[in-house]
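In response to reviewer comment 3 from the previous cycle, which asked for concrete evidence that the modeling workflow produces usable outputs, we include below a single protein chain processed end to end. The sequence was submitted unchanged, and the resulting structure tokens are shown without manual editing.
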Amino acid sequence: MISENLISNLLRTLPEGRIVDICIGLHWTAVVLEVEGEYRCGLASTLAGEHDHTGQADIPRAGYLTASPASELAAFLLEAHPTRRSLGLATINALLPVPQSWTEENAEETILRLGRRKRVALIGHFPFVPRLREQLDHLDVLDQTPKAGDLPPEAAPDVLPRADVIAITSMTLHNGTLENLLQLCRPQSQVMLLGPSTPLSPLLFRYRVDFLAGSLVEDIDAVMSAVAQGGNFRQVHRAGVRLVTLKASRMGAEFAPHGSASA
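The workflow returned the following structure tokens.
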């Protein structure tokens, strides 16, 4: 499976780190690590399991996780439990170094730049969808809970093979559906993985992805407070998060775009 192989390969690229703090908030999960003397914070959207106050623990060793190796928590992304996967992805994002080359361009701006006079498909209904619909010639939005004008996930086999630009929420890495969606994309299409949970790792460029639109935490204390107090992403963003985009061609030949011979 692409998604499982991708995660396993990604885990192998990560350094070890010392866990400093963990917060599993209402909307976001945040992990603070120390890696080689540098403090880093990673985010991931919080996915909740069933609320069972007396049954099996959602998070094993809750209250003692700061004593665990960071690599052990990162591997939670391979587990089935949604909250553990959130913790695993946030840990991965904290372990990843700040990219050397990125542009301060958010996902909306990139989609608009790439998608004019093109067929665009967006997996996940983001707040900027109304603005995209006003400016793009053709936009299909697919979502698990479709809003007015959206399509259900079952439309993906019909929509994605015809799209020129495809933007996929990083929640699909969370829920294990990324593999099937990437297999539906034409080699000639431009594919973006987007959302604050997106791992900013050039390794992903080997997996049919051309752009990574994610986030960098700049004010760790303020972001941790916002997450702990149930902040949504607009609040967490204001607290100290920068939205950035990585492009495959900026990262060198080793991580060439999926349409190239070296992919």
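The chain has two domains: 2-95, 107-217+240-255. We consider this sufficient to address the reviewer's concern, and the full set will be provided in the supplementary archive.
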